[in-house]
Amino acid sequence: MRVFNFAAGPATLPLEVLEQVAAELTDWRGSGMSVMEVSHRGKAFVALAQEAEADLRELLAVPAHYKVLFLQGGATGQFAAIPLNLAGPDSTVDYVNTGAWSKKAIGEAKRYAKVNVAADEAASNYSTVPAQGSLKLTPGAAYVHYTPNETIGGVEFPYVPATGDVPLVADFSSTILSRPVDVAKFGLIYAGAQKNIGPAGLVIVIVREDLIGHARAGTPLVWDYGAMAKDGSMLNTPPTFGWYFAGLVFKWLRRNGGLAAMADRNRAKAQRLYAAIDASGYYRNPVTKEARSWMNVPFTIPNPDLEKTFLAEAGKAGLVNLEGHRSVGGFRASIYNAMPIEGIDALIAFMKDFQSRHA
Ligand SMILES: *Cc1c(COP(=O)(O)O)cnc(C)c1O
Question: Per residue in 242-266, pLDDT tens?
Fold first, then answer.
């Protein structure tokens, strides 16, 4: 029996896609082999890879002068690859700090370039995003990095920062494909797959062509955007299963109305859950209203001693992986594209019932 899985990542995947994968697992497209057992350089896999890229480009309306790379090493690998490709050791790079993932990106960038923290939301305990006007940007910085959605804090930018001629770099790991974005506003977008795309092991990088080909000496070849772009992300063996799975998810998104339809669904899901939390007088979400994430909804109860009971009872009701991140406690419902509205309704019904019995 399937449960409603609110995990932050690896996260729930579309059931339709899982069933298709299961159906063709041992005999992919009449080959007598699984997709995991064929050469990445064979005709069939190369066609699959190109189709996946074309579908992603269509979904996000990626302009022609951007490359799409299918890489490994996760978003964390990109924390290093970005300064290595886009900045020199003496360059200044601007980072906006809105929480846990921003901090990790900053920590890694410091090893490779001079980091200026352009804004830091510590004063609100990372429950806000900075206003455009409060960003202390460095003229001539190599790039500006920010985290559009903080997966742990549940804080999401309601706007895209304007950075003039300085390329904007964004960690879209937990919000990619949740709604349309104007890719042309970015120099580089990256996202680990395991939140909103597919299984772990794949990271997607969408990068403007003029930013490619400047990797500094010493950059590992597998993270050199120029080398990878030249070889169609197949300089070495790519994560073939993840690429295949991602391609099926892109088709699922296209069948279901693309990103405009996803935005409508995701907005409705998030609004319904936040409204229930706010109206309860019991559950509490700490994030300022304008910056509430559509994808990750943290919440607390007045008596933390009841948290274990909440999780155990939720599990019995088929609602799993609701514990908050180990660094913050409480609860967190991650409600990515693949979480149906029925999952939200089941969670809200459970929360009401729990409150009536324990408040
Ligand atoms: C999950 C996550 C990461 C880390 O991804 P890995 O693939 O584990 O390296 C980085 N940034 C954000 C915003 C995330 O949600």
Answer: 999 999 999 999 999 999 999 999 9
Selected from 3.90.1150.10, 3.30.2320.30, 3.50.50.60, 3.40.50.300, the CATH number assigned to the domain covering 257-358 reads: 3.90.1150.10
Q: Which of 195, 223, 224, 252 is catalytic?
A: 195
Summarised one tens digit per residue, pLDDT across range 5-20 is 999 999 999 999 999 9
| Residue 1 banded pLDDT, cuts 50, 70, 90 | confident
Dist. CA 354 → ligand 1 center (Å): 32
Task: For the chain, give the mean pLDDT.
Answer: 97
Cα(43) to centroid(ligand 1), Å: 32
Nearest CA to ligand 1 atom 3: 75
| Helix 100-109 with 74-86: angle, nearest 10 deg | 40
